[in-house]
Amino acid sequence: MRRARNTIVAAFVLLMSRRRRRPKPEETRLVPALPSNPGAELAALALLGLSSLSALGFILIYAFGDSLPAETPLLGAAIGLAFLFLAAALVVVGLKLVPQEEIAEAYPPHEHPGEQQVIAELVDESGTRFTRARLFKLGLLGAGGTLGLALLTPAASFGPLFHVGNFLRTPWRRGRRLVDENGLPYKAADIEKNDFYLAFPEGTNDEEKEQMAASLVVIRLPPDQLRLPPHLEGYDANGILAYSRMCTHAGCAITEYRAPLFQPDEPRPALVCPCHYSTFDPTTGGTVTFGPAGRDLPLLPVYVDSSGYLRAKGNFDGPVGPSWWGVRIWKAQP
Amino acid sequence: MRAVLTLALLTVAGLLAAAPARAASGTPKDPLAAYGYHLYGEYCLGCHGGNAAGRYQEPSSATGAGPGREQSQQGGVGASLHGVGALAADFYLRTGYMPLRRIGLQPRRERVFLGDHEIDALVAYVATFGGPPIPTPRPGLGNVSQGQALFAEHCAGCHQVVGQGGYVTGALPPALVEATPRQVAEAVRLGPYVMPKFSRRAISDRQLDSIVRYVEYTKHPDRPGGWGLGYVGPVPEGLVTWFLAIPALLGLCLLLGRRLKA
After folding, report:
1. Per the CB 3.0–4.6 Å rule, which of A272, B12, B188, B193 could disulfide with A256?
2. A310 and chain B in contact, CB less than 8 A
3. CA distance B201 to chain A (A)
4. Does A322 reside within a domain?
5. Is the reported ipTM for this assembly greater than 0.90?
6. Rounded distance, CA B98 to CA A129, Å?
7. Residue B166: closest CA among chain A residues belongs to which residue?
8. Are B185 and B137 contacting, i.e. CB atoms less than 8 angstroms apart?
9. pLDDT by residue (tens digit) across A290-304?
């Protein structure tokens, strides 16, 4: 105990005595000493001290702050303050303590005033060896233009312009049953009004369900409300409609179904994509009523078989998934 | 005894009061429902019509309907309450969705001015027209993590993933902070306003318990960052960074660069 005390006292005395140094003898200087700025020095030191305290606070909160209700924000505040004080100290140093002096030295006068003109003329006259300057410009233009075209060429991969048929290929065939995500087939009686159901083609595994653009959103509307256009006549099974679940804008899943409880006063039924609020009217065959989608939602024709199961009658009425120019100009073949 | 007497008196009073508007089915026998019948005449009859059969107007030349339309252009005044059951009545009355401020508006959560007993009576009366009962969710049996997955799949598209509410075209999905477990279960089975309903095939009762439990959890979600910012995700957090931190940094840069101006 005593030894420890002695050590501390000795260390203190040593530190204190080290501080005081004998003043150096005055030397001759090249530049006169700048006036000191003790206030700014003190402020910078105080800011540095605050910065250290904040950093120390961060360490302490990190080590012992587990039970604090707002540990993360406190950690952020501590480290943020540490950086802030450090930055402020450096600002004070930069503005108040670093000597700031701008000395402009005048250029010497030109020694050979005539030479510049000669050099300019020399450069101008010796610059060209072209005899067919215009043809060269044409060549340059050609190279630049072709290169620009080459850079634009990958745009062709945005999608086929004419051979869209591949994108119509889906696993939906006549007679294929509609099943839920667990593979259980849907009966027509399962589809209730105002509810909406996710459906897949029967006999696909989970991975295929993810990849194939074959998922459906199945709804039931009162048959007298349907206003399907002539080419979609008979696509519904007594009011049951099976639309593609992929939005025709950017291919998000359509996960919102606007199902008014009281038709006369409330917004009409709609299938809505939550990504950009593309809104499709299911009563008119999936026409776009709002949002950025550029074409109708594809509809899958369905029927109810003799045992009450929902089955596809064929393929969708149009290409499934997001749109591009080729799909936009695609028209259903009658 | 006194309560019974009062009730009987009220029933008689209700009978007398509602007598002119009485429709075919007449007063229910159950005293609670009979009291509800009286209250119905007082508060609901104007829109939902006699015998709760709904009131409809001839649709005007303007086709369709919507919240933006004038009342005179609305095709309907109040829905028929036949077959909606205790489920819908309990939900709409206890959330304050009904009575509606103006026909055509989206019903929203309002102060409930009817007492518990009055609501019970009205629910009992509406239930006499048939329909689903009030669901009894048991969030204790649910699983928060499963509930979150189900909520993300079925509900978050409109209500936002921590139930803060959001936007759909044509309506405003409400925040779920004030929704009681029973109201959440009722909304799922009923589909109020333009919300779809979810049958037991889409969401089983057990899954509903989990969803309700998760909604309970979202009322006090963890806030590791200290500032929830509406729990709307990383986009607003980034915006806050842009709008607060970057001007501060720019100001600092200007301050530092001041010496160069001299």
Report:
1. A272
2. no
3. 7
4. yes
5. no
6. 91
7. A274
8. yes
9. 999 988 999 999 999
